[in-house]
Amino acid sequence: MITISLCMIVKDEEEVLHQCLSSIVDICDEIIIVDTGSSDKTKEIAEQFTSNLFDFEWIDDFAAARNFAFSKANMEYILWLDGDDLLLHADQTKLKALKENLSNDVDAVTMLYHLAFDEFGHSTFSSRRHRLVRKDREFKWIGPVHEYLEVGGNIIQSDIVIQHRKSNKTNDNVQSDRNIKIYEKRLEKGEEFSPRDLFYYANELKDHQQFDKAVLYYVEFLLTKKGWVEDEVRSCINLASCYRNLGDEEKVHEALVLSLKYDVPRPEVSCQLGDIYKEKNMYKKAIIWYKLAVEVDIDDTLGFKQEIYSTWYPHLQLCYCYWQIGEQELSIKHNSIAKKFRPDDSRIIYNDQFYNEYFKSENYNE
Length: 366
Prior knowledge:
The chain is an alpha/beta fold.
C-alpha cells in the first residue's frame, strides 16, 4: 500500500475547509496545510486535523505557494485539493482502493473534477486534473496564476471524482478580481506573457465582461500557435461567446468553425452550430450538428467538458427538429433519451404530455 500526503494551500476557507478535510482525513497518512494569510478561523479548523500547519507570505504567486506545500510532504505520493473541494462517500471508497492497489511505478493519477452542477445536482462542467503524484519525481507547479502541475512518465486515469463546492461567502467577487489584478500587475511591470498567460488573461477579461479586450488576447494567443490544443479549442468557444455578447453573429459562427482547425468538433461547438441553424429554421442542417454532438467521443480529454452538450441537450433539440420535419418517431425517441438524463425536466415532461394529447387527437379524428 502506498502512503499519501495531502497538500493544500488555503486562505479564508472557514465555511468549507471542515467538510473538505473530513472527506479525506481517513485516507491520507499526512496532511500539510499552508495558509497564505487567512483572517477568519481557517487555521483553527485546520488544527483540528493536523499539526502540519505552515504560513506562507502571499507574493501573488499560486505556483510558489503550492510548491512550498509540496516541499513539506514526507509520504510516497502527494494528493492536492483546494479548500472548497470534497470527495463523496463513493469516491472516498474508490480512493482507498486506489491507495491499496496502486503500483509503485505509477508517476501520476488523473481524477475527474466536477466544477458546476445543475438544479438536480448533476455535474454540468468538468475536467481532468493530475491529482496524485509521486513525491520523488519532484513535479513542479508552474505559473503565478491559473497554475498547472507539470507531470510526465507513467500516468493513469481514474474514475475518482472530486467535487468543487464553493462557499456562499460574499468575497467571491474579491477572489475573482484577485487573478485579473495579478495579470495586470505583471503587464505593468512589462512582463512578456507566455501563450498560456495570454489564454488565461483573456479568460479573466471575458469573465469581467471586457469582451473587446478579451477578443484581442484570444486572437493573440491563437496566433502564437504554441498553445495546448485544449486551450486553442476553448479560445474559439470563448471567442464565440465574446462576439455573441458584442452582437456580432457572423463572428460567432466564424469562431465556432475555427475550432475545427484544432481538433474534432467538440459537443459544445456542435450544439452551438446546431442552435444557429435551428434559429434559422434550417432543421435538417441543425440535425447534422446535434447528432454529431452525441457521436464524438472526447472522454479522454484533459480539457474542460460541459456534459449537457453530449447528453440531454442535443437530444432535446433533435426532438424538436425531427418533429418540425415530420419525423415523429425520431422526435419521440430523442425525447426519451433526453429523459434518461433529466427525468424531472419540465420541458421533457411537457413533450411527453404533448405527444399523448397529439396522438389521442389523431386517433379521435380517424
